[in-house]
Design goal:
Blueprint (H helix, E strand, L loop, with lengths): L10 H9 L5 H72 L26 H11 L4 H9 L3 H32 L3 H66 L4 H24 L1
Helix pairs in contact: 1-2, 2-6, 2-7, 3-4, 5-6, 6-7
């Protein structure tokens, strides 16, 4: 038994025969249009899904950053409260002291030293932080956030954390030395009160930068979500082109349908390129 595989028409040829299309380049192009439109629609659907996944990731990452910012604000509040407790205890101690044995005056050299001056902040970061502090509207804040890169914020955060660690490295031996060489309760209370105040300021600086990073991440998530919507619209246009091109194969007056299908595909491609480059 002999099988002639070469004589069997290809699916494209069968489709051309059924549609009564001439075996020319134009006929082949018209026959292949539904396939091309399907490929374009599939690509746009993949881009829409990818952008949505990125948006969800950025939202989740923003939630993690918000949790870290909340931790830093909790440290800020705790240290401010501890500083107030030190001062309150010192006030009670001063009030209970007799006139014959007053507490020694405050000695500046036994207070906690101030942290090293902060480096000059990036002007763009400083402007965004000022807008957040002033609770500016979204229309004012978002253009400032767009100018920031994640690398700039990460660099500022790294500097702020290193500054906090450096201050802790300075005050830890001073606190230990004070407890060993001077048993005065009042001196320790004064030292710890000023130390907690400075540490609270450092924690607040880190928290503000984390909140800035949260807002920048949420803005990026909104951008990915918008791009996903736009790619989805392009996919719908490409699918409309598939439907029209498929109907044109069975229609007698098919020129108008071919034009509509080609136009839908062209619009889908141009719109997708615009979204990819400019949105």
């Amino acid at each position: 038994m002999h099988f002639d595989f070469m004589a069997k028409p290809t699916p494209m040829q069968q489709l051309q025969d059924q549609a009564n299309l001439p075996p020319t380049r134009f006929g082949k192009a018209m026959t292949a249009m539904p396939v091309v439109m399907t490929v374009i629609a599939t690509l746009l659907a993949g881009l829409a899904s990818s952008e949505m996944t990125k948006a969800q990731y950025q939202r989740a990452y923003g939630a993690q950053l918000q949790s870290k910012a909340g931790d830093q604000w909790a440290f800020f509040q705790a240290k401010r409260l501890r500083g107030e407790m030190q001062r309150n205890t010192l006030d009670i101690l001063c009030a209970s002291a007799s006139a014959a044995a007053p507490l020694p005056p405050m000695e500046p050299e036994k207070l906690a030293p101030a942290p090293e001056p902060a480096a000059t902040p990036n002007p763009e970061i400083a402007a965004a932080l000022q807008a957040i502090e002033a609770d500016e509207a979204t229309e004012v804040l978002n253009p400032l956030l767009v100018k920031l890169s994640f690398e700039q914020i990460e660099s500022a955060l790294r500097v702020a954390r290193e500054r906090a660690k450096a201050y802790d490295a300075i005050t830890t031996p001073l606190r230990a030395k004070l407890e060993k060489t001077d048993g005065s309760l009042a001196t320790r209370l004064r030292f710890n009160a000023s130390r907690y105040d400075y540490e609270a300021q450092l924690n607040a600086g880190i928290a503000r930068l984390l909140e800035l990073q949260v807002r920048r991440t949420n803005l990026t998530a909104e951008r990915h979500h918008l791009r996903s919507q736009r790619f989805f619209f392009g996919m719908l246009a490409a699918q409309a082109g598939v439907i029209v091109a498929t109907l044109a194969l069975a229609a007698r007056q098919r020129n108008l349908l071919w034009i509509i299908a080609a136009g839908a595909g062209l619009v889908a491609v141009v719109f997708a390129v615009y979204v990819y480059l400019y949105v």
